[in-house]
Amino acid sequence: MAELMSTQPAPSRPQTQTHRVLVVEDEESIAFGVRDALEHAGFEVSVVHDGPAALDAVRKARPDLMVLDLMLPGMGGLEVLGTLRKERHDIRVVILTALASENDLIQGFELGADDYIKKPFSPRELVARVEAQFRRKELDTAPPPRLELPGGISVDLARLEVHRDGQVFALTPREGDILEYLIKNRNRVVTRDDLLLDVWHYKSANVETRTVDIHIVGLRRKVEPNAAEPTLIQTVRGKGYRWFS
Ligand code: CA
Question: What distance in angstroms lies between residue 237's CA and the mean position of ligand 1's atoms?
Fold first, then answer.
């Protein structure tokens, strides 16, 4: 993998910590374009072309973020994610997908992916998505330790768990952030732009993404007694979402 690393430091970048990004993509031309754009933005980039090599690279080199294509020969991207999740790797993940199948995306987010980008994409957009992942703010107040909701549901934001119907559902850190944001802003409608700016930390909400909606779908499956008729995370048509209380 070493020969795939950037050998030239970005000259104009201030001496801050360089974030290391692993690109997992079997199509050479896309992999090359992604690496080029990310290196230009000051990231330290390595590239692998299949799932097993991705697992190997994450285990050994511990990159900060992985750009992961879902359609890989042999071991697919979702399998890579599932394996890393079991091993409890703390890595940010941006999925690349030509499919944009909602089920794949929901599964990807449940396996800990943070965002996705649909092929074809512009290198600039990808760089913006990756940069946003490193812009997460520290929470300004400690989360409430445990929330008791109607229907015997309880949410533990510190442990990222939902207890419902005698079962425990594990939340991803991103789902926890969304839930906490909705709860903190329970007296108003939270728009998709609010979530993109304040939870995903995009510089501008002017991106075409269904990331928010798909995360909400996944979150409802864990929190709501009946995800098909949500009562806790309510949809405000044409505006966004609102926490029930
Ligand atoms: Ca591919």
Answer: 36
